[in-house]
Amino acid sequence: MPILLFATDVIHEIATVLFVGGLYFMLFVQLPAIASVKSPRMRLQLRHASFKRLFRWSWLGLVLMWLTGAYHLYLTKPAKLEMYVWIMILLYAIFTLLLLVAQFGVFIDAIMALEDGNSERASWLYRRLRVLIWFAFLLAVALMLLDNTGPALVQFGGFNLESLLDGR
């Protein structure tokens, strides 16, 4: 069982790198590079192709994170889940909803606007997608911090507002 737990954790970390790395690349490399393209039509086409690929890889990473996280809990069978784990599950759910809205709401609308020849609306929708991707990236960073600090917080009695206010 330890090797299975180790393999699950490795796959989970690879999925996290895949997901967060894709968001990072899109925000800090791909979208700024696309913005430097002179032709507005070419910018829209590049954004379309980039977001299409981002969603494909993001779903792969997110599904693997859900599966490996759930399998990890199944293998370890904790008596009760710590608060940080519940918060992580909630954040993963928000992540999933955000990706659903981004792809099947805003992205589909942008495609339809492009097909209708409404490049101004498509451009506006792609800017909204960028905001959603920023939010997803910040959420991913928060999740990674919680994943890495959560066990340490539990080990030292956890984090509670009373101890913070009392200065203990």
Task: Please characterize this protein's 3D structure.
- It is a single chain.
- The protein has helices spanning 2-35, 40-76, 83-115, 119-155, 161-166.
- By secondary structure, the chain is an all-alpha fold.
- The protein has one domain (2-155).
- Helix 1 runs antiparallel to helix 4 (119-155) and helix 2 (40-76) runs parallel beside helix 4 (119-155).
- It is elongated, with a radius of gyration of 19 Å.
- The termini are far apart.
- The relative contact order is 0.12.
Structure described in brief:
Helices cover 88% and strands 0% of the residues.
Layout of helices and strands, plus pairs?
Layout: H1 2-35, H2 40-76, H3 83-115, H4 119-155, H5 161-166
Helix pairs in contact: 1-2, 1-4, 2-3, 2-4, 3-4
N- to C-terminal separation? Answer: 40 Å
Poorly predicted runs of 5 or more residues = none
The string of secondary-structure elements, in order, is HHHHH
Please count the helical segments.
Answer: 5
Q: How much β-strand is present in the residues?
A: under 5%
Q: Could you say how many structural domains there are in total?
A: 1
Biggest sheet statistics: none
Query: What is the number of strand segments?
Result: 0
- What characteristic shape results from the CA principal axes? elongated
Question: SS-based structural class?
Answer: mainly alpha
Radius of gyration based on Cα positions? 19 Å
Question: Helix amount, in percent?
Answer: over 70%
